[in-house]
Structure prediction request, 146 residues.
Amino acid sequence: MYTLIQLTKSVQETIISHCMANKPKEACGFLLGSVHLTQIRVTSFVPVANASTKPENQFSMHPSDMIPVISNNTFTIVGILHSHPSAAATPSSEDLSTIWYDIPSHWIVSLQQPVIEIVAYRYTYNNHSLVQAQYHPIPIMLIGDD
Prediction:
């Protein structure tokens, strides 16, 4: 179980810029970094185009956009991220039905004003049932860029 995520300020700014540039559509992408015992350190964000037919309310990624990221063995995927342009940073039932259950963290960026909120979650499943996950927030600590 992960108890803390370290996020650099520059990656946070990149995430917010990408999500705002895609508003009113949901933005999405992968977070890269490392895992050390119970901590995740995020060192970069890779935006991926939202291929959903309903991009204002959901996200999906086209395999041709994902394959270069998920098949690269030179880095570790530590999170998957998407935005909620007009909703809270709380997982929807669709979010909790994800097939990405083995990724260490799931991030939601709420673009509701006045404050943009970034929340990371750990998803768990009862008896490995992939019907719908339970979600547990993981604290995010902003750190300086090394």
